[in-house]
Amino acid sequence: xxxxxxxxxxxxxxxxxxxxxxxxxxxxxxxxxxxxxxxxxxxxxxxxxxxxxxxxxxxxxxxxxxxxxxxxxxxxxxxxxxxxxxxxxxxxxxxxxxxxxxxxxxxxxxxxxxxxxxxxxxxxxxxxxxxxxxxxxxxxxxxxxxxxxxxxxxxxxxxxxxxxxxxxxxxxxxxxxxxxxxxxxxxxxxxxxxxxxxxxxxxxxxxxxxxxxxxxxxxxxxxxxxxxxxxxxxxxxxxxxxxxxxxxxxxxxxxxxxxxxxxxxxxxxxxxxx
Amino acid sequence: xxxxxxxxxxxxxxxxxxxxxxxxxxxxxxxxxxxxxxxxxxxxxxxxxxxxxxxxxxxxxxxxxxxxxxxxxxxxxxxxxxxxxxxxxxxxxxxxxxxxxxxxxxxxxxxxxxxxxxxxxxxxxxxxxxxxxxxxxxxxxxxxxxxxxxxxxxxxxxxxxxxxxxxxxxxxxxxxxxxxxxxxxxxxxxxxxxxxxxxxxxxxxxxxxxxxxxxxxxxxxxxxxxxxxxxxxxxxxxxxxxxxxxxxxxxxxxxxxxxxxxxxxxxxxxxxxxxxxxxxxxxxxxxxxxxxxxxxxxxxxx
Lengths: 274, 302
Fold this sequence. Notes:
The complex is a heterodimer of chains A (about 270) and B (about 300). With about 270 residues, chain A is mainly alpha-helical. Chain A has helices spanning about 1-35, 35-40, 55-65, 65-95, 105-115, 120-130, 140, 150-160, 165-170, 175-190, 190-205, 210-215, 225-235, 240-260, 260-270.
C-alpha cells in the first residue's frame, strides 16, 4: 500500500513538473501581455503584473490593424476549410464507393505524392499565383488549398469501412449515388469529417510560410503574418507583442479546449499535415 | 442540378462519367498545385542560366546542382539541419516515452494534463516563438534567470551566433513534444492489457515491466515516431522567423535546408538553384519515407 502511494506521488510530481515546462511559455505570454514596459524588462522577472494593463490590447490595435488581420484570417480559414472539405468528400467517395478504370493506380499515385514536401511545391506555386495575377490578394491564400491528399486518404479509409449492404439497400430504394453520399455516408462519417475540419482549421489559421511569400500589403495580412510584421512595427514594446500573440493563440486554444479529443485522435492518425 | 439534366439523357454514359465528376475538384486542385509543381521543379533544376522573368535558359545540365552542393551556405544548411535533427529527435522521443507512460497511467485530471502537454500542438509557431524569444533574452529573460538560480552564468542565446542553434533546438524540442507524445500514447494504448496482468502475476517490478514489456512492444511505434519526426524536423524553417527576426541566425550563421531554398528563390531569385536544392531535400525525405513505410509494413502484423 505504501509503495503504491509513493509511486503515485512520483507520477504526479513528474507530470506537474513537465506540465509547468510545457505551459510556461503560454503563462509568460499572457502575463507579459498585461505588464507595463518596465515590468517586461525587470530582473529578476516580474511573474504577475502589479496592475494589469488592459490598455496594452488597445495599444497593440493602434499600432497595427489586428482587427483587419483577424477578418482576413477568418475569411481565408473558412474558405480553405469549406472548399477542401467539399473536394475531400467527393474524392473520398470516388476512391471508395465508385468503380472506375484506373482507380487504384490513381490512388497509389496520390499516396506517393504525399511524401513530397510542401516546401518544394512553393517555388512553382509562387510563380503560378503570380502568373494568374493573384499575388498579394487573399485569393492567393485560398486557391492553392482547395484539395488535400491527406484528408482524402483519411476519409476514404473511413468510407471503405461502411458496409456495402447499406449501399445496395439504398439503391433498391431508388437513391442516386449523390443522395446516398450526402444522406447516408456523410452522416455516418461525421466524426471523421469533424476531425478533418478541426485539423484543417488549425493548419490554416497558423499558416505562415505561404502568406509570407505571396502577401505584401498590410491590408491583406493574416494574423501570423501581421504578428511577424509587428515585431518591426512595435519595436521594443514587448508587452504589446505579447498582447498581440495572446489575441492570436486564444481562439485556437478555446477550440482545443472544446474539441481536444477529436483533435488528438486526428493527430494520432497522421499529424497536422497541410 | 445541371449535371443531372445533361446526364439523365443516357444512363450508361452517366454511369461511366459520374466517378470522374466526383473526382474533378480534387484532381484540379492536386494537379495544378502538387503534380505540376513537382514536374516543374524537376525540369527547372536542370535548366542552366534560367531567367524567371523571361523564362529563357541556355540549356540543360547539372550547373545548378554543382553550384548548390559547392555553396558554403548550402553545406552549412545541411550541417545545421542535420545537427538540429540529430539532437531534437532523440531527446524529444526520449522525453515523450517517459511522459506518454505517465499519461497512460490511471491518474486523475487526465484531461487537464493532456491539455497542458498538447497545447503547443495547436498554437501558432510565430506567436509562441515570440514568447520564447522574450524568454531567451540575454539581460532579463526568464531562462537566464533560472540559470542564475543554479549559479550558471547568463547565456546570450540570440545575439551570439554560436548559441543560436541551442535556442533553436530547445524551442524545437518543446514544439515537437506534443505530437510525439500523442503518437506514443496511442501506441501504448494498443498494447494488450493481458501482458501487464501476466507480468504482475509473475511478480515483475515496474522497472522490469517497462524494460521487458513496454519498450519491446512499443518499439515499432518508437521507430515510426523517430522517422516521422526526422522528416518534419528536417524541414525546420518557420521557427527561425520569430527567434531571429526572419534571418537564419543572428549573423546568417544558421541556414537550414528549407531556409536555403527560400533564400535562393524568394530573396535571390535564383529559381534553378532553388529547384536543385528542393530536389535534394526531396531525395532526403524520400529515403526517410521509404524507411518509414518499410517499418510500417514490417510491424503491421505484430
